[in-house]
Amino acid sequence: MALYEHQSLKIYNSITGKKEEFKPLTEDYVGMYVCGPTVYSNVHLGNCRTFISFDLVFRYLKHLGYKVRYVRNITDAGHLENDGEEGEDRIAKRAKLMEIEPMEVVQKYSIDFHQILEKFNNLPPSIEPTATGHIIEQIETIKTIIDKGLAYEVGGNVYFDVMKYNESKHYGKLSGRNIEDLISNTRELTGQSEKKNPQDFALWKKAEPQHIMRWPSPWGIGFPGWHLECTVMSTKYLGKQFDIHGGGMDLKFPHHECEIAQGQASTGEDPVNYWMHANMLTLNGKKMAKSTGNNILPRELFTGQNENLSKAYQAPVVRFFMLQANYRSILDFSDEALSAAEKGYHKLMDSLSTLKTIQPSKTSDFDVSAWKDKCYEAMNDDFNSPVLIAHLFEAVKQINLAKSGKLALTQENIDLLESTLHDFIFEVMGIENVDGSASSSSHTDDYEELIQFLIDMRNHARLNKDFETSDKIRDKLLEMNVELKDSKEGTTFQIHN
Ligand code: AMP
Ligand code: ZN
Q1: Which of 3, 108, 151, 157 is least surrounded by Cβ atoms within 10 Å, i.e. has the fewest?
Q2: What is the tens place of the pLDDT at every residue in 361-379?
Q3: What is the 3-state secondary structure (H, E, C) of 346-365?
Q4: Which ligand is nearest to the CA of 249?
Q5: What is the count of structural domains for the chain?
Q6: Which of 259, 278, 297 is a domain's end point?
Q7: Which ligand is nearest to the CA of 73?
C-alpha cells in the first residue's frame, strides 16, 4: 500500500482560493508542470526560491509514493522584454549585446541554472523541454485555435480573440478579473491597434528584419508568443488535462490566465486541476528581479561577495532558510535571517549525531509516533514546511533532554526518531548535511571560504602597509591557480582549472 493512501494531502488551489483534498486524475500518477526560467542571464536567488518551493512539492509527492512526471520548461524564445506584447526578445537582446549567437546565450545560462539548482540539491525534472524545440507543435496549436474561430491573423501576427473566448468561457477566472475591468484598465498603446481588442494576446508574432530569432510559419516568418509554449509543452507531455501547474505568483496574470484560455480553446478542456503559486523573495522589501538589478546571485552567497552579506553561506543553509517560510508567504532576504537559519541548521544536524549516542531505556517519555503524525500533518497541510521545521525542533529538544538524562527513550523510539528525521530532512526537504557526510559541493564551499579568508587577511595586510605579506598571499594563491582581481568594489577571485 502506498503511503499516500494513509495520508490526506491538501493543496491550496489558487483558482478556487481554497485548500482542497488532492486527488490525481489517474490513480497512482501525478502530472505536474512548472514554468521554468527564461535563460538570458544568471539565475537569481528569487528564481531559486520558486524552484525550491516546487522541488519540495515534487519530493513530497514522491515520498508519498506517487509516480510523478514533472515537466519544467526552458524558455529560450518568445519572452519579450516587458512581459507583454511588445519589446525585444530577452535572449536576442542579450545575444546582440554579447555579440554571440542566441543559442550561445541559452546554453550559457541553462548550464548556470542547472549548476545552481544542483547545488541547492533540487531534483531534476522528469522532462525539461525547450520552446525552440517545439515550434512545430506551437504552429499546429495556433492552427487549431484559428480553426475554432478563437484566433485571427493580421499582417503576419496571430492574436487570441479574448472577447470571442469570453462569450462562452471566463477569461480572468484565475486572477479574479473580468473582461470589463480589463478593457477599462487597458491603455491603447501604439502598435496594438491592429488587434480587435487591446487585451488580445499574440500567439504568433511577425519577425521584423532586425529580429534574429525567426521561423517560417503559415503566417510568414516570425516567432511564437511566450504564453503558447507552456500550453503546448504541458499538453504534449502531460495531456490536455493534468494535475498540478505551478509557477511564481507574478506569472498568474497574464501568463497563466492565457494558458487556461489557450488550453481550453485548443483542446476543449480546462487544462489544470490544481494551480499553485509560489510567493516572492524580496530584498530590502522589494521583489528580487533580474530586470531591476535588485537581486543576489547564488554564487555571491556561496562566496560572501555581496554588499548585503557579512559572510559566505553554504547552499543547504540557504535552502533551509527558504523552507522556514511557507511557499505562499513573501520571504524577505537578510543577512541576519540567514545567519539565524545557519544556527538552526547546525542545531538540527548536531541532533542527528547526538541521537546516535543516546542510551536506550525500557520506557519512553516521548510519544514519537504521535510526533511523526504531526510532521505528516504539517506537510499534508499544503506543504507547510515552517510548521514541519517547528516539529523537527521539538524533536531536537527531546533529543537533547534524553542526552542529558532528563528524558527516557526506548530503542524502538530512537530508531523511529532517526528514520523520521532522516525522511523529512534529507528526502522531503532535500537539506544536505554538510557537517556530517562531506559532499563534493561542501568541499567546494569550504575551499572558496578558505580563499575568501586569505583575501581578507591580504586586505588586512595591505591596510597595514605590510605589502610583503599581501604579495606573498597573492603569489601563493596564483600558484594554486587562484587569480585575484582588485577593483574599487573590492577583491574578487577566479579559479583556473
Ligand atoms: P523568469 O526566468 O524571470 O521567467 O523567472 C523564473 C521563475 O522565477 C518564475 O516562476 C518567476 O515567477 C520566478 N521568480 C522571479 N522572481 C522571483 C522572486 N523574486 N521570488 C520568487 N520567484 C521569482
Ligand atoms: Zn509558463
Answers
A1: 3
A2: 999 999 999 999 999 999 9
A3: HHHHHHHHHHHCCCCCCCCC
A4: 1
A5: 2
A6: 278
A7: 2
pLDDT value of position 84: 59
Provide the β-strand partners of residue 214. none
Could you tell me the distance, in angstroms and rounded to a whole number, from the CA of residue 37 to the centre of ligand 1? Answer: 7
Tell how far the Cα of 271 is from the centroid of ligand 2, in angstroms. 13
Q: Is residue 461 part of a domain?
A: yes
Residues 110 and 206 in one domain: yes
* Atom in ligand 1 nearest the alpha carbon of residue 281: 20
Mutate to test the pocket of ligand 1, among 250, 251, 296, 321 (most ligand atoms within 8 A of CB): 250
Q: How many Cα atoms within 13 Å fall on the side-chain side of residue 23?
A: 2
pLDDT number for residue 128: 98
Mark whether 48 and 145 lie in a shared domain.
yes
Which atom of ligand 1 lies at the shortest distance from residue 251's CA?
Answer: 12
Predicted local confidence at residue 346, as pLDDT: 97
Cell numbers at 99, concatenated? 555579440
- Residues 48, 169, single domain; the answer is yes
Residues 274 and 340 occupy one common structural domain: no
Tell me if 72 is assigned to some domain: yes
Grid cell of 356 as nine digits: 546516535
In a domain, residue 298? The reply is no
State which of 39, 40, 41, 47 you would mutate to test the pocket of ligand 1, scoring each by most atoms of that ligand within 8 A of its C-beta: 47
Report pLDDT for 454. 87
Burial class (CB in 10 A: 0-12, 13-18, 19+), 346: middle
The whole-chain average pLDDT of the chain stands at: 92
Query: Which stretches of the chain score pLDDT less than 50?
Result: 190, 437-442
Instruction: Based on the fold, state whether residues 59 and 186 are members of the same structural domain.
Output: yes
Residue 69 forms beta bridges with which residues? 31
Expressed in angstroms and rounded, the spacing between residue 404 Cα and the centre of ligand 1 is: 46
Are residues 273 and 349 located together in one domain of the fold? no
Residues 341 and 216 in one domain: no
Q: What is the pLDDT of residue 446?
A: 67
What is the whole-number distance in angstroms between the Cα of residue 72 and the centre of ligand 2? 9
The domain of 171 spans 3-278
Q: Is residue 331 part of a domain?
A: no
- Where b means 16+ CB within 10 Å and e means fewer, 174-194 reads beebebeebeeeeeeeeebee
CA-proximal residue: ligand 1, atom 9 (nearest): 248
Distance 277 CA to ligand 1 centre (A): 11
Find the 33 Cα to ligand 1 centroid distance in Å: 15
Asked if residue 396 and residue 258 are part of one domain, the reply reads no
Domain end point (choices 230, 261, 278): 278
For residue 273, give the C-alpha cell: 486541476
* CA 258 – ligand 2 centroid, Å: 10
What does the pLDDT read at residue 142? 98
CA dihedral of 414, 419, 425, 426, whole degrees rounded to 10: 140
